[in-house]
């Protein structure tokens, strides 16, 4: 049975073959120009990705701050309630473990 993955694989393979044939028939100057163009596009893509990642970090940081402020404003006991539910369980567990340990003789 042929599914979409098989068709896509065939098409990508055919395109890769055509690209390899085209590249092999290029002159050295054309190959250099193509590689320089690809490097430039890759660098631009990288710069855009870094810029976007920085913007996303700022956005989520702002969203966290604004969200926390909004919850505190509309539900004043939210912070205490969240600490009661999700409080620092590690320190509670550590304190319980310390209390139950027997001194070594």
Description:
- The structure is a single chain.
- The protein is mainly alpha-helical.
- It has a domain at 28-99.
- Helices cover 85% and strands 0% of the residues.
- The mean pLDDT is 83.
- This is YtxH domain-containing protein.
- It comes from Niabella yanshanensis.
- Keywords: Coiled coil.
- Residues 28-55 form a coiled coil.
Helices and strands in order, then pairings?
Elements: H1 4-24, H2 28-74, H3 78-86, H4 89-100
Shape descriptor? elongated
The helix content is over 70%
Number of helices: 4
| Topology, number of strands | 0
As a percent range, the share of strand residues is under 5%
Mean pLDDT, all residues: 83
Distance separating the two termini: 73 Å
Order of helices and strands: HHHH
Question: Biggest sheet, in brief?
Answer: none
Low-confidence region ranges: none
Rg from alpha-carbon coordinates? 29 Å
* Global structural class: mainly alpha
Which features does this protein show?
elongated
Summarize this, please?
This protein has helices at about 5-25, 30-75, 80-85, 90-100. It has about 100 residues and is an all-alpha fold. It has a domain at about 30-100.
